[in-house]
Predict the 3D structure of the following.
Amino acid sequence: MPGEAVAPGVALLIGGAGLLISCAALIVLVLRMLLARRKMAVGTLAELVGITPANLSILKNGRAKAVRFSTLEALCRVSDCQPGDAIPQRYQNCAAPASSWWSCRTTTPMGKPGTAPCPGAARLPIMSAETSTQTIQAVFLDVDGTYADFGVVPDAHVQAVRAARASGHKVFISTGRPLPMLPESILGAGFDGVIASAGAYVEVAGEVLLDREFPADLAARALAALDAHDAVYLLEAQHALYVKPSAEARLRAHIEAHFAADPDGRTTGAAAILGGVRVLSGTDEAIFAKISVYESPVPMAQLVAEIGGDIDVVGNSIADEGPHAGELFQRGISKADGVAAALSRLGIAQKDSIAFGDGQNDLEMLAYAGLGVAVEGSHPDLLAIADRTALPPHQHGIAAAFAELGLIPR
């Protein structure tokens, strides 16, 4: 409102907690926590706070010169903090050591300082005031629409990855695809690790750090709802891809149609996926990390409601058919979890991480990384939180961005 007081971008004393933090860093912390950990869409958060998505992006990136107190109050309300606090009480006084685990300074009944874990500590962005001398960057690349174009990786991207690794940087694939969908044509450049199934699986230098699958009850409910509507879906596990017998032909038609849209008429992408598909038999046990739905007679939102519980959906990155297709995953799991696990294993600070993506399942990863890069033409929510953009793969965007960021020689 006109004449409303604003909070300048200077250090503030937070709610009597005795912690000095800059207004910009404080807002970035709150916004990244809300966007990345609560899976809140940028548009939704902007509406709740009462500002435009564009202005929310400015706040998220720490570029605001001043902030209205009404905006701070709205952020506190949405992030569940008390009036007068700038960040939720349970996250105050958090310190960020070299690892991704945090500790909180607390006060005992006798008034002496103590320590306790921060709730959700491993999942929060690290906001350290210390300046790191670490020059090694950890880079995380989405596959479809980012590193690869219709399943085909430009040679310029292959060379960029090899050059970055030769310079000492760590480069990872971070994709919604499971391992069977990652052929040599995608992994051939050589990587330091893989985040697959949108964060459900994490591997660093051959060591498996995470391998999460649908719990049995959630898997049963999901399959029951999908089969009740005769949906066409693919069960994605790290050892195989499964399709039910009655849907095999329709699944192949969907995937082949998608890759046929490649302007160059290449079929490599379709073959890489279809080659790993197995038809479910009566004796197969349905163990999987994610479900890709290619055709449903009802909207995905209805399927999610019918399944209930800890299930969520994002757009299908391989064959997008609007509201009647998508990727079903366990709520609370995202690529950001994979990034955090990889960084912790390598001892690389969060601020020294860079993430590239173009889809809805990249939202948490870009919000979590020290630098988030969205491909031009990405989902609007992703563009709103990105720190910068890159050209699409057919224009060799990864290679150009690597050079601009100093990861490889120009």
Q: What stands out?
A: Confidence is low (pLDDT under 50) at residues 1-22, 82-134.
